[in-house]
Design brief:
heterodimer, A: Rossmann fold, two-stranded antiparallel sheet, B: alpha/beta, 2 domains, 12 helices, thiamine pyrophosphate (chain A), PDH_E1_Alpha_Subunit (chain A), oxidoreductase (chain A), DH_E1 (chain A)
Chain lengths: 344, 331
């Protein structure tokens, strides 16, 4: 099962069995993608910097399942999860991570700049908080051009320390823009506990601008999705912006090389989140309990996704690098010369 | 031909392009009813309304960021940055975000936005409202940079900037807003990367940008009276740069001075001079000279401020010495 031909949830109706299974599938696809990406890195097959989304799957999936392909998201340095959740394919993603020509960005973006505009993903961003303006500008464009899409701006708790957030929330609130600020609070700002760098309440920051703000359990995909569907509908109705703080946890370090991290985070704490609050285990239990899927069906699904990932990784490893002639291509976009003629 | 001010020329360009393309809009501080402190935008809000001429809070990184997002998703924003000195405030949005989207996405995303701002000292505005910072943006691959030198260029380059599919920084000389020049009534655009030979000459080439084109022209008039024939060239855009026209001229005259109002150290003048040295070395009879602003923050006191920028007299003096075979520092 792949999400290639995924048809998106109607945002104004409650999810059905099919939707629940797709949410589960998408969460497992994220976890599986990250497990493979981590292995590629540890095996020395992948270069550079990468940041694992594992543990936060319910946030990306709960929100993106409330969106259509036409809705936009902006992502972060920890962006693989958003990319998968918004509908991206494994093959192009792994190719991008390995710098191959068939990657979403022809290998020029890499892990921290992966973008998939065919599904409305405006791109990961390696500047913490760097995409807050872009997301808000996308919402401004929707409003000015009378388009009904909604933009979700993903960012972490660490990014709430950037001044840009307050500039753009102010404008979004002044102009009622259809944007949802989704703050993934995983408790750590890189290698520092967020409580050491963030004074006061995070939601109160948005409320100061008159933005309706919520703080919810980011490990509960159904709860995240339910709130997201409501807020997306309200955004389309001209009631935006909104702010949602999603309490979640990052299973890996800040980046894949951040292995010995007990100086800032205990193994006990990590084990507690993984064993007792894992979003996939939780949702899987619910699916079985509700009779939506059997354990066997879920195991088969997991196996299929593992197989998909394995094939995509093998494909990406064998795929060609970009031709060296591409190094100075795409610096500037082409402009149709006819457009630049007077009278046109 | 009718004559209009540079300010009116910019205003006309914006109005024409906003009528032409409903996805264009203006965003910036005091752009609507106030029409900016320089009144360049006066009247636009009456025609296009506050939906397309949008007053923002004093949040430069914020509204430049909004422009990037709007451009990425199908609009053509025109950002008004009240003073060129505020470019420092928006560097991340401009250089890390706008400039790199096309490349980082392998050509899939583009950012058709214009950032219009200004340059120029001797307005007694102090060190934070007088800088000419074109070098900062010209250094960044992915940005185009236009420097109009008169009302004619201001209109034609602005129209091209708005239609270009890339982020374009267009920097006007704030001391020239009331200067008049002939501007045709009928529509025209000035292509990027095409220098303008303002005046032909045979002894020395004076390459001036923006405000320095007038300075170079005045220097050429001084030199003419002394029997020195100076060619004056305005590159009009520094990214892309019309190297061919500059090289052709220098190969003919064998001498050149490059004049730009940005600081001289590591500046636009150094870049252009270096390209001439690399590509026209055997044609040169004298070192290519750089004349930028002094490498000091712009002082307030008029007596001091006037010393910091190139003047026609100083350009003429340097040209005279180059033509006389002086300033060749053999070891």
């Amino acid at each position: 099962m792949t999400s290639k031909t995924k048809t998106k949830t109607k945002t104004n109706t409650s999810p059905n069995k099919h939707d629940y299974l797709r949410m589960y599938t998408q969460m497992v696809r994220i976890r599986t993608f990250e497990d493979n990406a981590n292995q590629l890195y540890l095996a020395g097959k992948m270069q550079g910097l990468t940041h694992m989304y594992s543990g936060e799957e319910a946030v990306a999936v709960g929100i993106c399942e409330a969106l259509n392909d036409n809705d936009r998201i902006t992502s972060t340095h920890r962006g693989h999860g958003h990319c998968v959740a918004k509908g991206a394919n494994y093959k192009e993603m792994f190719c991008e991570l390995l710098g191959k020509q068939e990657g979403y960005c022809r290998g020029k973006g890499g892990s921290m700049h992966i973008a998939d505009q065919s599904h409305g993903n405006l791109g990961a961003n390696a500047i913490v908080g760097g995409s807050m303006g872009i997301a808000t500008g996308s919402a401004l464009r929707a409003k000015l051009l009378g388009q009904d899409d909604v933009t979700v701006c993903f960012f972490g708790d660490g990014a709430t320390a950037q001044g840009l957030l307050y500039e753009v929330m102010n404008m979004a609130a002044l102009w009622n823009l259809p944007v949802i600020y989704a703050c993934e609070n995983n408790g750590y700002s890189e290698y520092t506990k967020t409580e050491e760098i963030a004074a006061g309440s995070i939601t109160a920051r948005a409320e100061a601008f008159g933005i309706e703000a919520f703080s919810i359990d980011g490990q509960d995909v159904l709860g995240v999705n339910e709130l997201s569907r409501k807020l997306v509908a309200r955004c389309r109705n001209g009631e935006g912006p909104f702010f949602v703080e999603l309490m979640t946890y990052r299973y890996h370090g800040h980046h894949v090389g951040d292995i010995n991290r007990e100086y800032y985070r205990s193994k006990k704490e990590e084990a507690d989140w993984k064993e007792n609050r894992d979003p996939i285990i939780r949702f899987r239990g619910w699916l079985v309990e509700q009779g939506i899927a059997t354990e066997e069906e879920i195991e088969a699904l997991n196996e299929q996704i593992k197989q998909d990932a394995k094939e995509a990784v093998a494909y990406a490893e064998a795929a060609a690098y970009p031709d060296v002639a591409e190094v100075d291509m795409h610096v500037y976009a082409e402009t149709d010369p006819a457009t630049l003629q007077a009278g046109n | 031909m009718r004559e209009i001010t540079l300010s009116q020329a910019v205003n006309e360009a914006l109005a024409e392009e906003m009528r032409r393309d409903p996805t264009t809009f203006i965003l910036g501080e005091d752009v609507a009813e106030a029409g900016t402190p320089f009144k360049v935008l006066s009247g636009l809000v009456e025609e296009f309304g506050t939906e397309r001429v949008i007053d923002t809070p004093i949040s430069e990184p914020g509204f430049v960021g909004l422009a990037v997002g709007a451009a990425l998703t199908g609009a053509r924003p025109i950002v008004d940055l009240m003073f060129g000195d505020f470019i420092y405030l928006v560097m991340d949005q401009l250089c890390n975000q706008a400039a790199k989207q096309q490349y980082m996405s392998g050509g899939k995303l583009s950012v058709p936005m214009v950032l219009r701002t200004n340059l120029g000292a001797t307005r007694r505005s102090g060190a934070q409202h007088s800088q000419s910072l074109q070098v900062l943006v010209a250094h960044i691959p992915g940005l185009k940079v236009a420097l109009p030198s008169s009302a004619y260029e201001a209109k034609g380059l602005m129209k091209t900037a708005i239609r270009d599919n890339n982020p374009v920084v267009i920097i006007e000389d704030k001391l020239m807003y009331q200067d008049k020049a002939p501007v045709p009534e009928e529509e025209y655009l000035i292509p990027f990367g095409e220098a303008n030979i303002k005046r032909e000459g045979s002894d020395i080439t004076l390459i001036g940008t923006s405000s320095m084109v007038q300075v170079a022209e005045e220097a050429a008039r001084i030199l003419e009276a002394e029997g020195i024939s100076a060619e004056v060239i305005d590159p009009r855009t520094i990214v892309p740069l019309d190297e061919d026209t500059l090289l052709k001229s220098v190969r003919k005259t064998s001498r050149a001075i490059v004049i730009d109002e940005g600081h001289q150290n590591y500046g636009i003048t150094g870049e252009i001079a270096s390209r001439l040295n690399e590509k026209a070395f055997y044609y040169l009879d004298a070192p290519v000279l750089r004349m930028g602003a002094m490498d000091v923050p712009v002082p307030f006191s008029p007596v001091l401020e006037d010393l910091t920028v190139p003047t026609p007299e100083r350009v003429a003096e340097n040209a005279r010495r180059l033509c006389a075979g002086e300033m060749i520092h053999a070891a």
